[in-house]
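Quick one from the shared queue. A colleague (R.T.) flagged Retinol dehydrogenase 13-like isoform X4 as missing a structural entry in our internal table.

Convert sequence to structure tokens.
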Amino acid sequence: MAPLLRFTAITVLAAAVLYVFNSDPSNMARLSRIAAIVVLAAAVLYVPVRRWAAGGVCESQARMDGKTVIITGANTGIGKVTARDMAERGARVILACRSLEKAEEAAKEIRSQTGNKNVVVHKLDLASLTSVRQFAKVINDAEPRLDVLINNAGVMHTPRWETEDGFEMQFGVNHLGPFLLTNLLLDKLRQSAPSRVVTVASLAHTFTSGIDFDDINSQNSYHLEKAYDRSKLANVLFSRELSKKLKGTGVTSNSLHPGVIMESDLMRYRRDEWQGKFGEHVASALRKVVGAIFSVFGKTVEEGAQTSICCAVAEDLENTTGLYFSDCVPKETSAAGMDDEAAARLWDVSERMVGLKS
């Protein structure tokens, strides 16, 4: 009930703040009534709303003994939960992370929680194509098989930073890095078939009408939300095109929306932006308000990981490919997400950007 108490407390606090700026008694009475109604509605609706927000649950009991799973960004959030689930199922789990220190802490915790000692860590920085190539070489040289690749890592709403190779950060980390990584591991995936590629996209892909091929690196203009939305659309299009290229190989490719995660580290850049714009005190208040809303309408990391887990292990999805999932079931993507011409063009452009084609 803590999220409910936090949500209602902030509602009442908001009414009090409004009163400070408008002390007309009639307005205060109206605000008090509104606050009371909100508190009552929150109390009545909290349980059903939380059940709705939690979404689908992976019901598969499939074991993963003898299988190898790579999860990018597995040291925190839904990636860490997914890694723990794979370890519990008996898989060899490879945490592919930018920070080796944080990854090793996560791996140590997962080993302790699951009793599975076959949880290892390798360095992977998706903002560096050199790092991606080095990681892929390690895997191709040392691992006898690769059954599941989960492209989980990502960044959200960054300033206009650039990757090591000069790409806009969100497009580079969210799309180009995973694009290169997946291509470099395809032979291993084919050799291990049936195998799966799972790409964590987002509902945000529906907020954009398409990829701006004339300014794909956001050099002419940059808007952090639009850049994120397009990078997530790129995830959906990449996964769709990959499924076509892998037809008949036994390797499947699906993308997914994990849900709005209340505890996600993805919001860290937005928090910094708020502090820069509004100052520490206002930014702190905004974080509390957003946190209160997410605590009711968002998902926990355990809930948010369910669709990734489902796409990785569910027996009935072994031959399912080219789809977009949400709450553990296929969902229709946006019109832009089904644009096969754009998907093929993005693949060609991406190959050139990462050096797979000259």
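The first helix runs from residue 2 to 21.
Residues 98 and 215 are 28 Å apart (CA to CA).
Added to the table.
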